[in-house]
Amino acid sequence: MNAVRKKEWLCPRNVVAGLAAGAMLAVAGAASAGVIKIGASLRMKTETGEKYGQMVVDELSAINAAGGVNGHTIEIKLLNDECKSDIGVANATKYAYQDNVHLFVGSTCSSVSLPIVDVIHKAGVPMLIPHSTNYKITLKGSPWVFRVPISSRFSAAAAAKYTAENIGTKIAYIWASDAASQADAQKFYEYIRNFHGEGPLYAEQFQEGELDLRPHLLKIKALQPEALMISAQSQDFARGLVQSYEVGIPPSVKRIGGSAASNRPAPILAGDAIKGVFFHAAFSYVDPDPNAQAFVKMTTERYGVPTPDHDFSQAWDLVQIAKRALERANLTLSDDSLAADRAAIRDALATIQGYKTLGGGVVDFCADATPECRDGNKTPVLIEYTKGGEDYELRVIGKTTFGADFGLDGMQEEAAALRKSLDN
Amino acid sequence: MLLRTENLSKHFGGLRAVDGIDFELEEGEVRGLIGPNGSGKSTFFNLVSGIYRPDEGSRIRIGGQDTTHFEPHRIAALGVARTFQLLRVFSEMTVLENLLVGHHLHVAYGPVAAVLGTRRMRNEERRVREEMMELLAFIGLADFAAMLASELSVGQRRLLALGRAMAMRPRLLMLDEPAAGLSPVNVDNLLRIIVGLKERYGLTVIIVEHILRVVMDTCEKVTVLDHGQKIAEGTPDEVKTDHAVIEAYLGREMEDDEVRRVLQG
Amino acid sequence: MAEQAASLRFIDATERGLTRLRAVHPLAPWLVAFLLLAPLPWVLLNTYHVFLANFICVMILLSVGLNIVKGFCGQVTVGHVGLYAIGAYTAAVMSVNFGMTFWMSLPIAVMVTLLAGAVVGIPSFRLEGAYLALVTLGLGESVRIFISATEYLGATNGFSGIPAPRIGDFRFDTYQKYYYLVMPVMLLGVFFSFRILRSRLGRGFMAVREDPVAAAAAGVNVRGHKMIAFLISAGYAGFAGALYAHMIPGYLNPRNFTVIEMVTLLLMVVLGGLGHIWGGVIGAIIVTIVYDITKDYYHYSLLLFGSVIVLTVLFMPKGIGGIIDRFIATRRFIAIREGRATRPGSDDAA
Lengths: 424, 265, 350
Fold this sequence. Notes:
The complex is a heterotrimer of chains A (about 425), B (about 260) and C (about 350). With about 260 residues, chain B is of the alpha/beta class. Chain B has helices at about 40-50, 70-75, 95-100, 110-115, 120-140, 155-165, 185-200, 210-220, 235-240, 245-250, 255-265; strands at about 5-10, 15-25, 30-35, 60, 65, 80, 170-175, 205-210, 220-225, 230-235.
């Protein structure tokens, strides 16, 4: 039976067909040398995570459909790192040494991007970061690292800078005893003091969960500040806001929150008392800017996401930046040009200047392996609550741009230590 | 005096499972321990072997040493081996390994020697394996050495439990219903083995048994328990005619027809 | 039939070979294993595979240790990842904050982990099964939460900059070089477990697992054996942790020591064979490789892993190790019936 089949298989017609197929494969193999390989490691588990992962794939497919980049097609692979550093490191290592990618994209989480920097630095793969904000990532000083989102060294002072420039510097502070709230308040008044020479009007700490903040608020009322910062977790923050109105601090005094102000429970618990409170992000879906609104429309229609957050918008920005860089890079894409192609993409990324993000910021990269050059976006957006309660509403009140070297004072020692560990 | 208990007591909540038993056992004796269900026989075993902690005021002495508060493995180290009513063989270990665990206290090398694989360790391991294979041959399980204990029949497991106790090279062997569930042929076989062991190693034996033939045929002296108390002690013949014993067995509902038959006949 | 005969020949040949090797010297099989493993970085396709090999070595250390306490001694501990974290962070703090070399931070990490192992072991004196699992889970998780909340340990940002080990000017700073550090340690760990488990101590562990009351009556110090099992497994976790910490990129994060990692570790041991001497090794290799291959189907990875655990427990409670044993036993049985082979010898001390 087998023998018979073998004979049939060897008939001339099949042999010709086989040879043709082989020839086609050989052609396909030759063509595949012109493929730009991108490897992405993101947190894909959440629903939006998957959707913006899909968006990245779709955008790149669209580029391919339109003829690719300088005739090269782009091939992207997505891996989930679950926001875990060991998985992220494994993914990056796999991309670098097994899949031989030309560009690495990732990760969502700072704690994952931090160790990946070491991996891609050793392997010599350009790394384009979509979401991680920790300032140490670029402070490590690897020439292969480029960051699209806003570094934490800017965002920590964004609200303070905006307040000082647009509202005033006579500010009263109360903050809860937890570490994050304490740090938020401290960074705020240090910024005001360092850049505007004004000390706090009132500064007191209260215990987490303390029910009656009115004694503090009554004293503050008497001091007539221009702004009041209540730095606390959602519940304490909401209570403080409500009580600030109870003791009669006028609505004209701007209320400011810490990083917890953007958490969903805050507007729901505080109700209308949250009106006018603002926080910062890299993008807001309420931004009236036509580009932003076109983006929101696109995500609504294609991915069913009417309220894309800045993770979403930055993933889109990243694709545009990658596309520009790949266009500029002179790529050979043969089997032994991997190192040269990677270096070409790195150098092309370093020439990206003046890319306007969906959030209204500008991404500038340059050649030096320093945070000044590699923290692309320096423009946080400030977003204000216009309505509290379950169906709270937001609006963009402004943007504030930082100098490239902002927040790097006194970091030389830390930078040196990080650079040393990078070479380890 | 190999074993002596004074005022040995154990209560579980309001139940006095063992209630002030004074018990003495001479070296070389084979003693039967009988009594109706729930009379405290197994509890007595568990107390002597250290598995239960006795109540305040109890005293247990083994070979002249006060073992009242000893943990089980220290009592085992004094040469006390026991079997269990429910056998408790190590199911997922081989037959040979079961015996090797029984021999645990006589394997003379430590973990460091094991890791280093010293010559002494290897010789010792060879010796104990050979000895245990001999013991297996004696109880008729040599062919099953490499099988898991769970693969044996119930009768073979009973023999294995006995073998594991013997592997401890005991001075005092405590058998908890060694013949339960065996066919008459197997009971005879077991009796032969027990008598053989006793003669070969000069053991002292306590047997708890429901099948009275076993006790009556092998023991020189019998102790009878009821409600946790000792109600009679003497030769099998003496005990058989003891008024308190007859009352203890006949004065209540009995499942064990055989006991009734033996006592009446 | 022909296949059966062939597999039997293979089994017999392997066994004869091993016996001959042991006759040369008891350590000869281990030397051969080392020589076989040594050229691996040169055989593997790329650096990523060497990275995986290193990672597998760390996982083998962890799962072999867990198999000793769980598979052999029967103590249901779910806190092993906590010990691993303690080992890793101790090594990290010793080398970064106290400037010690790897050769100092490693033994200190192991000692600290041993201490922690004793703490995890104490509840096993009184608790069994699910209760012990809950307590150890709590201990393991509290380690992770403590790290997450402690700024000194990098909290949720992670602990970075742990230097690569060095001997003089030679630094283990690539995966290839690190392999020659982690592979011998792994091999020593496996060797150690073989020696321990096939000795008096190992039989004591198994007796405690099978029936603590009967074990005690046979003269086995049950508490002592439980404690030693916990200590040995903690020692393994300490080595694994320190080796993981110093491996590129020298970064630790509490997120890598969660219940998910614990489940993966349990999967390794269960799949490889609980209480099987090769269980931890087989499981660590298979799970790590399967995890890597299925990386692309991340949507289904948890589903896959969950179902593998359930199916393993249902259909092969003794894991792959158990299946191999069964396979060999069946082949032998057939051969004995056909009169083609002799009776199996009783297994000997390796």
